């Protein structure tokens, strides 16, 4: 199987890899030679050796999709991350490493039904935007709401929001916009939450647009 995957890697070596998307490949430690310039990395079911991402000094954007893992050990030491997305990783239940990502500005967690608790985010002074969805096992948003400068909170589809969560959102010193894309969620669950919080809706945009990257130039 590795022989089938390596041609993809060989092609990557010939490109500018500042923005890189890898799909169903297995990386090795020596791949740092062509990954060293990478700033934004999307991994679709990619096997990554321990410590490799920590060696990519320019890496500030990490999008992990698919595959399986119980925690975020793959990202340990990647201390410059401003954007982290974790989407439908089978078995993911431990997000505690997020609490150490002090440069983080945007957090996107989706489709992780085994996550029961969000890490305490009190140290994440730069975290401004969070998008949380399909975390059916989550008991509370409390850990996330400890982020002192969180401005925008987006909920997506099925997620548990307790009365305590609602009160924390209302009383949060920085949250100024709240949205819940409640597809397939009964009105009796999401509507009272939205009514009580009564904040302006988050202006939905692609993360690239939120960061004002070149592919989404700012409107005049």
Please trace the helix and strand order, writing H or E for each element.
Answer: HEHEEEEEHEHEHH
Named at the architecture level, the CATH assignment of the domain at 60-202 is Alpha-Beta Horseshoe
| Largest sheet geometry | 8 strands, parallel
On the 0 to 100 scale, the average pLDDT is 94
- Poorly predicted ranges (pLDDT <50, ≥5 residues)? none
Quick one: CATH superfamily of the domain at 60-202?
Ribonuclease Inhibitor
Distance between the termini: 49 Å
DSSP summary: helix tally: 6
Proportion of strand residues = 15-25%
Strand order of the largest sheet: 1-2-3-4-5-6-7-8
> So what's the CATH class of the domain at 60-202?
Alpha Beta
Q: How many extended strands?
A: 8
Global geometry: elongated
CATH T-level fold name of the domain at 60-202: Leucine-rich repeat, LRR (right-handed beta-alpha superhelix)
Subunit organisation of the chains: single chain
User: Portion of residues in helices?
Assistant: 10-25%
Global structural class: alpha/beta
Calculate Rg over CA atoms: 18 Å
Describe the structure concisely.
It contains 6 helices and 8 strands; from the N terminus they run H-E-H-E-E-E-E-E-H-E-H-E-H-H.
For this entry, give a set of tags.
alpha/beta, 20% helix
Explain how this protein is built.
By secondary structure, the chain is α/β, with parallel strands linked by helices. It has a domain at 60-202: Alpha-Beta Horseshoe (Leucine-rich repeat, LRR (right-handed beta-alpha superhelix)), CATH 3.80.10.10. Helix content is 20%, strand content 20%. It is built from six helices and eight strands; from the N terminus they run αβαβββββαβαβαα. The chain has helices at 2-12, 32-35, 142-145, 163-171, 187-197, 207-210; strands spanning 19-23, 40-44, 61-65, 83-87, 106-110, 129-135, 152-159, 177-181. The chain has an eight-stranded parallel sheet with strand order 1-2-3-4-5-6-7-8, with helices on one face. β1, α2 and β2 (40-44) form a beta-alpha-beta unit. The protein is elongated and about 55 Å long. The termini are far apart. The mean pLDDT is 94.
